[in-house]
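pls ignore typos typing on phone
NDP + seq
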Amino acid sequence: MDKFDNYIGGQWVAADKYVENINPSDLSDVIGLYASASKEQAHEAIDAAEKASEVWGASTPQDRFNALDKIATEIFERAAELGELLAREEGKTQPEATGEVMRAGQIFKFFAGEALRLTGELVDSVRPEVDVEITREPVGVIGLITPWNFPIAIPAWKIAPAIAYGNSVVIKPAELVSGSAWALTEIISRAGLPDGTVNLVMGSGRVVGEEIVASEKVGAVSFTGSVGTGEMIRNKVVARGGKIQLEMGGKNPLVVLDDADLDTAVNCAVQGAFYSTGQRCTASSRIIVTEGIYDRFIEKISAETEALRVGDARDANTQIGPVVDEAQFNIDMNYVEIALKEGAKLVCGGTKADCGKEGYYMKPALFIDTTPEMTINKEEVFGPVASVIKVKDYEEALKVANDTEFGLSSGICTKSLKYSRDFKRRAKAGMVMVNLPTAGVDYHVPFGGRKGSSYGNREQGSYAKEFYTIVKTSYIWAQ
Ligand code: NDP
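k done
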């Protein structure tokens, strides 16, 4: 069985402990043994990053462009192979996985260009003969803690801006899916960066993650994952005066109005709710439908959900891969039970799917006759489970859409300019989609939410520099 080590200070370093990376489509398939770092190794990685930050922080925009561009080029060249690894370890389908790898490449390309575009400002002082310069500097060492649902794209959208703006990083990927982060780091290790600029410490959140969060040497922490872990990390980092950025859950609404194109609305709902096995923070989990289109919508979405082909992530016929692991599978099934107990009507799915091999296969679950107060409409499931809420009109739909602790992505299907414009302005979410699924975003624009979904600066696009740089104001008297 192949063993995969941590990458610290420019060296591949063995660990005392290794964990199996298991394919959720086929539990007999072990992808490899991945290092599970100790607290000491996490310390070593932070020290290496601190040392490297002096060197990399002084690099030229050309050095940064060259490294990021090289990484992007190799990711594109190896997209099919890396996509297969991703599908095998996380369970999203091969096209989804290859698409995610391509996205990682696009992000590195984009931030290669951003490294050349970082500018400052020169302004006149209010005092005579004095100039004021406003410049941006690297933060120093950035700690990155990433989840299992986008094993290469999320590490990419944190590492790329961090190094483009001259920081060094310590990344701890989710232990469940270390393979893609390891493969990305291996590519990065040959990009000409000074030793210690990017350090990979695979291992558990409670061991490695907590060390990163606690270290005074880590100037900023960027986290994506669950609300509970995110809030706990925020409190610790803020208490020690560090910078923090959190991307957490969602309970994203998709509003369907009477005048919507039925095919578009059903396509948005099915795509948004069930693709990537519903394991996206931008998934549409509350489908809010006005009464004039309700019956036609339910008939069509039920038929299309029922017809979705669940199976092995690497099988070309599969549309919905397995749930990522046993714990998440049990969480999903538990929410199905809760919904049934609270009176929701299950129109399809919600059971284990038999796909001829041992894996965490679940038939996508669609509930109707649900009310906004039900648990299924309050808490994030993070699986192939969606519920429909019937409402009278647009105003009620908007009220229900905003009635949540989260605020990541909010969608509407309508041909009305009046309603789409109003929704865009009044939806309490970081991202609004009109006639598009709530999931599926571009890489060159900001990503993030409001309320319980996010905290701190936006990720991605040129907005990423707000988190990954510090502003300095210099006053110069021409004596
Ligand atoms: P977690 O929030 O537990 O994990 C996210 C990352 O944080 C992982 O790398 C994890 O490490 C790490 N971590 C865990 N505990 C700590 C800690 N004490 N200190 C520092 N880092 C820590 O999410 P899970 O993966 O357990 O998923 C649970 C739920 O979170 C899902 O059901 C879903 O609702 C939500 N989620 C949301 C995501 C999103 O994109 N918004 C993505 C993934 C999950 P480890 O390797 O040990 O897990």
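The longest strand covers residues 130-138. The radius of gyration is 23 Å. more later
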